[in-house]
Amino acid sequence: MNFDIYKESDYIGGTVEGVELADLVDSADESAIERLRNALNELLVLRFREQNLTPPQIERFGRYFGPLMSLKRPNNIASHIADAEYLKIISNVQDDSGTPLGDGGNATLDWHTDGAMKPLPATYSYMYARQVPPDPPKTYWLNAYLVYESLPAELKERIAGRWVIHHYYAAGNEFPLPPSLPLDQRLQGPRHPLVRIHPATRRRILFLPQRKDALVVGMSEAESLEVISELRDFAARSPYYCAVAMEVDDFVMWDNRPCLHRRDGWDNREGRIMWHLANEGEAAIPFRAGEPTLNCTSNPLDSRL
Fold first, then answer.
1. Of the four, 185, 214, 243, 305, which is 20 to 30 A from 117 by CA?
2. How many whole angstroms separate alpha carbon 265 and alpha carbon 178?
3. How far apart are CA 49 and CA 44, in angstroms?
4. Taking Cα atoms as reference points, which of 38, 26, 27, 28 lies closest to residue 16?
């Protein structure tokens, strides 16, 4: 299967042209899947335009990249899709009775990593646009490799070997952020390293919690707030991102480990429907001084892969 991949920006993202994912699912072309996996290792985010996919086809495609995980909220039946065990609906649309037809709203979302509050955060994530407003909101992806590599040396030293408690907050990435949970609730949740290693590329990733009020193991509440705030503010100012206003039938997949992503808000009178899927992850590999890793402060790729 022949297709082309073009860079979306100097730092992250690519557009794939000349491929019908439905055909790729049916053909089970291992060389094409391996090429997409290698492209994700380099570009982190891939966009496919004008796709025609059913829920079972999306789940079959996702399984080429590993076991699937559910990010559905069990009490939100509206977010479930018939004939799909793992695919869920993200939407602000309601039916005539006012019942939500998906999980989510129209609020602006801050930078986050899918499933970070789970012991095994997602490896890859996928979104398929089914309905968008006339002026589609942009989704942004940030290269967390380059964010880490551009940190001041003093800050790198300060966070070396540190772990963070990723507590669960139902509206954890809505902007502006809701008030903090009580301290005892923020002490509950999986612990992940602030600097992790990608298992394939061996590069260092700044693995940020969704909220500035997350607790750093071995630091006080005030110290945790100071360092996480500094890191999140630094990341938010970084230029290492791409922005995509997804159109109907756009399909986007990304490596959730070295990416942060966020989304603009939009007028709630306009409906937006996305189908969302994720692959089950592995435990985050902590970076330890002296381990062999790779830092690349520039993207070595040509505009066409």
1. 243
2. 16
3. 17
4. 38
pLDDT, residue 175, reads 77
Question: CA 51, CA 57: separation in Å to the nearest integer?
Answer: 11
d(CA 135, CA 112): 23
pLDDT, residue 77, reads 62
Half-sphere exposure of 92 (CA within 13 A, CB side): 15
Strands across the sheet containing 195-197: 204-206, 195-197, 285-286
**Mean pLDDT split into 10-residue runs, the chain, 305 residues:** 90 96 94 96 98 96 95 69 89 84 88 93 97 96 98 97 94 79 95 97 97 96 97 97 97 98 95 96 86 46 35
The residue among 165, 172, 169, 222 whose CA lies nearest residue 194 is 165
What structural domains does the chain harbor?
A: 4-286 (3.60.130.10)
Q: For residues 9 and 239, what is the distance between their CA atoms, to the nearest angstrom?
A: 11
d(CA 257, CA 7) in angstroms, rounded, equals 19
Question: What does the pLDDT read at residue 301?
Answer: 34
Please give the pLDDT value at position 171: 72
In angstroms, the CA 88 to CA 125 distance is 12
The C-alpha atoms of residue 7 and residue 184 are separated, in whole angstroms, by 45
Query: For 174, which DSSP code?
Result: B
pLDDT of residue 18: 95
Q: Where are the beta strands (DSSP E) in the chain?
A: 4-7, 14-17, 45-48, 68-69, 80-81, 84-91, 109-112, 124-131, 138-143, 163-165, 191-193, 195-197, 204-206, 215-216, 241-245, 251-255, 259-263, 273-279, 285-286
